[in-house]
Amino acid sequence: PEMLKLDLIVHNNLASLAQHDDPQKSAAWLRRAIEAGEKLVSAFPGSPRHRAQLAQLLANQGELAHERKSSSLAEHSLQSSARVWEGLSQQFTSNERYRLELATVQNRLGQFYLQHGRLPLAKSAFLDAAQELASVDLSHHEPATILSDLASIQNNLGLCYERMSQFDDASLCYSRSVDVQRQAMAYDPDNPDLQMRLALHKQNLSRLRSVGTQLESELTQ
Predict the structure, then answer these.
(1) Helix axis angle, 96-115 to 71-91, nearest 10°
(2) How far is CA 189 from CA 57, 91, 151, 178, 196, in A?
(3) What phi and psi, each to the nearest 5 degrees, are found at residue 46?
(4) What is the pLDDT of residues 70-83, one digit of tens each?
(5) What is the model's pTM?
């Protein structure tokens, strides 16, 4: 077990170091780390720590595969990561970290589906991510971060609805993203990242309303 742990740590670190300079080698080292993680989970199935490590490695593999234009591996890795986080969140309901990690991967999976035009799957992933975040107790975490992430998911859901030509639903999601982002900023009003996100959400809402007004004007002419 100690050798497997060392194998996981070393190859994960090597993968991180090579990610930008040599993505192919980084992917190979990451696969080696995942193999070690899978063996640890198999040897200690009751250990949540090993499962959490594996879930994070799979998420990293999904991100790297997406960067390398390997869509099939990216989807499989993100789905696998989400399943592990979901299992942990269901088994250890008091540990909200697992729910936060699950929401992050679900949102990333939704973005992946959105980029590939698989809109029903993107919608489902965003809805799942929003549900997970909405159930988190803000008093136990950084509320500005949680709320801002929730606002971003609502914004992503709005983009999804807009591409599905469900403009009323899109407008509602954009409005929610603005409202929730404002709630986030109440905790940290001078944070430039939060301000930038609010501007983006407001821009999407204004753009959609402008398009709707233009279409209404054309129909009444």
Answers:
(1) 160
(2) 34, 37, 15, 14, 11
(3) -90, 0
(4) 899 999 999 999 99
(5) 0.89
